[in-house]
Amino acid sequence: MSFPSREEERRLHERILERDPVAPADVFRLLIPYVMKTVRMEMHCSQEDARDSAIDAILIYLNEPERYDRQKKTLLRSFLTHIAKMRSVDRYRSWERRVLREQKYAEEFELGGRSPKEVMEETVEARRAIEKFEQMNLDDRDQELLHHVLLGEGSTEKLAQVLGHESLPKDERQQMVKRDRDRVLKSLRRFGREDSHDES
Amino acid sequence: MMNPDWLETAAERGARVPELLGSMFAWYRDLEDLSVQALAEQLGCTEATLHWMSLCRRPRSEAFAADVLQIAERFGVDPSGIFQVLRHIEVTEALITQSNSPVEPGARALQLAARDHEKKP
To answer: How many CB atoms lie within 10 A of CB A85?
Structure first.
C-alpha cells in the first residue's frame, strides 16, 4: 500500500480549498486506506468501525478544510487519522452506553417480572374462578354488573348504564343501582360460603 | 475503475452531504424513482464509477460547465448525461423556490412544460 508524499498531500489540500470538484474523491482514494488501517491497528476496532470512522473524518474535513493547519507541519493523513480515532472513541462510548442501558433494562425486567410458575398458577386460579361464576347462574345483566364491580367500577352512572337504569330519575336510579349491586354481591358472598363448605 | 470495499458506504454517506455530487444523484434517483444501477445505466457507467462521481464536489455555479466536464473526463463518462441530471435538479430546485413566492402561474406552467419536454426521450 503506497501513500501520497508530503508534497502530494499539500497539493491535494490546496485543491480542496480551491473547490476542485474532483478533489474530494481523490482525498478518499489516496488517504482512506491509511486512515482505516491505522485506526484499526491502534484502536483495536473492527474493520467496519475503522471504515465508518475514517469516512466520518474525511467528511468532517471536507466540511471545514480550513481547520487543517499546514503551518503546524502535521501531515493531512495524520490530521484525518486523529479525527477518525476520536470518532472511533465516540462510537465505542455510544455502544457502551447502549449496552449498559440494555443490561439495566433487562435486570429491571427480570426483577419485576413473574416466574413462569407464578403466571401458570394465576391462570389456573382465574380459570377456576370463571367456572365458579358460571355455576352461579347469573343472567347476562348481572354478570356484566359483577364484571364491572370486580374491576373496581364505582360510578353510579356507569353501573346504571350496565343495568339499563340510565333513563330513571336520579334518586330512583341511585336506589336501583344500589339494590342490584347489593343483591349481586350478596349472591357472590353466599356462593363463596357454599363453595368453601363444599371443599371442606 | 477500482471498487474498494469502503466505496459504496462512502458514497451512501456522501449522499447526505449537500456539497457533494452524490446528494444531487440521490435527489434525482428519488424524483425519478431510480435504483443506483438504473442511474448508472442512464449515465452509461458502472455502479462503482457512479459511486466515485458521488464523492466529487457539486459543480460550482460560476464554473458549472467546466466542473461537469472535468468530472466526466476524469471518470470517462459522457458529460451530457451528467448535464441532463443536474439540469433536471436545478429546474426542480428553482420550481420549489418559486412555488414559495408569488410568481405568475403562467410562467410557472411554462417552466413545468419545459421540464416535462426535457424528460421525454
So the answer is: 20
| Residue matched to cell numbers 356484566 | A144
C-alpha grid cell, residue A48: 467496519
Asked if A24 reaches chain B (Cβ–Cβ under 8 Å), the answer is yes
B12 is written with which cell numbers? 451512501
Beta bridge partners of B20: B57
CA of B45 vs chain A CAs: smallest distance (Å): 17
pLDDT tops 90 at residue B4: yes
CB pair distance less than 8 Å for B10 and A28: yes
> What is the ipTM metric for this complex?
0.81
Give the whole-angstrom CA distance, residue B58 versus residue A72.
30
Please provide residue A31's backbone torsions phi and psi, each rounded to the nearest 5 degrees: -110, -25
Asked if the C-beta of A25 comes within 8 angstroms of chain B's C-beta atoms, the answer is: yes
Other Cβ atoms within 10 Å of B42 Cβ, number = 16
Structural Rg of chain B based on CA atoms: 15
Q: Is residue B72 a contact partner of residue B79, using CB atoms and an 8 Å limit?
A: yes
* A84–B contact, CB cutoff 8 A: no
Q: Give the closest-approach CA distance of A35 to chain B in angstroms.
A: 12
| Beta-carbon-side half-sphere exposure of residue B77 (alpha carbons within 13 Å) | 29
B57 touches chain A (CB under 8 A): yes
Handedness of CA B44, B52, A14, A60 (dihedral sign): positive
pLDDT of residue A78 exceeding 60? yes
The CA distance from B55 to A25, in Å, is 5
Domains of chain B, residue spans: 7-119
Q: What is the pLDDT of residues B54-89, one digit of tens each?
A: 999 999 989 999 999 999 999 999 999 999 999 999
Q: Quick check: A62 and B19 CB within 8 A? A: yes
